[in-house]
Amino acid sequence: MLKMSFLISIKDCLRPKQDGRERGQTAMYSLLVAITIFALFMLPVGEAFSNAQAFYSKLETQNRLSDIAGAITNAYTANTKLVESQTGAVLVLPLGTMSPVAPQVLSGGTRMCLSNSATLAPLATYTNLSTSIVYKDGYGKPMCFLISSQLSTTTSGQTIYYHNIAIISAGRDGSIAPSTALTASGALVTGGDDQGRLIDGSSINSGQMTITLARMNALVSALQSYFYGRYQSNSNRDPSLDYFTNASDTVGIIPDTGGVPILATNANLLAALGLSGQALQDGWGNVFTFDNSSSLVRNPSNLNGVAYTNAPFTSQICTTLPGGQSLCLSALGSY
Question: How does the average pLDDT of the chain come out, rounded?
Answer without folding.
Answer: 89
